[in-house]
Specification:
It contains 14 helices and seven strands. By secondary structure, the protein is mostly helical. Keywords: Signal.
Length: 369
Amino acid sequence: MHSQTLLVAALVAVAEARFGQEQIPVAAVAALTSRGNPGDAGTLSGQVPGVLLAGANACAKLSLADTIVTTLGSTPDVLAAAAALVAAEKNFNPFAVSVPSLCSDATLPVTEALRGIVPLVDPAVTGSSTENANSASSLLNPFVAQGLSVADVVAANGFTNFTTQAVDGSTGAAAASGVAVVASASASVSASASASAASAATTLVTSTVAVAASATASVAAAAGSGLAFGPAGAPTSSGAAGPIVNGVQQSTISGLNFGLCVPTMKFEAGLDGRKDTEFTFQAIDPLVNKGQEEALNPNIITKRISDQLTNVCNANQAAKDAATAAVAQISALGTKDQSTADAWNTALGFAGTNTNPDNAPQAGLIGHT
């Protein structure tokens, strides 16, 4: 009986640990105090928890994400905060329901930059590993979503263990993986008569969307700067590695000038006297890192790098905006391993950066997920 009691207590603890998801996107919205009218950011951030509660309509958070953009503007930092809300996991009680609900309204979100982003789901749900990997990827490179609801996009890319929910609260079953949305995607292609959309629909049906070399944050920064865009909305870049200018490695994303600094991050064991099995994050560039210790929490380092772009690096505004957006993106990912450093470096145009430049021991590389 004692062991059964402990088991029940453990299960309850696990379930309770998933509550509180509604608080995760709040900070990024609350930080947008320089956007919109005074008080707007605070008001909007106060509405975030309500749309992520277990009983909230699945479409509510998409509508709020649109409202955030229309109220505060479509700047990179606003778009990043709104994208984090779209991708956010709703509270979920696996003892009350067995699967999450996803929005079936194909018009939401209205904001084009937010379409194609899919949400995280509770790890207790069967198939969640597929969906959560897709969610992380969609923040880097959104899935094709023309004429499709979030529920359609999710099903098309391999996760169907959910119920659909419309704005009016009516529910339904998820479409079969990669099948039921074909007609909708094809119809969108026909309506637009666009060759690029046709190619996108093929990508959707075969579920072969790859993670782009730039994160949504970088796309938003490039869009805000009026830069040229290549296929699938990715900002044009100068190649796999940027040129060296005055001894400083440059970003591959056009228009991003980080001045005196290379804003990359490493993930190594044994930094600053830690154990060889303990991995932490740190800025690679000595100028950026001066005065900052390593950290288990990557958000400490991304914020430090972002601040240093103004403090010591003489970066241009496009680079600062891209970094601000990337800070929100990394916070939304919630990971604490090598993929986190890779995502940060890629977002700023430094894909492929060696995250272990000091050749630290790799034994026990398990990260801090």
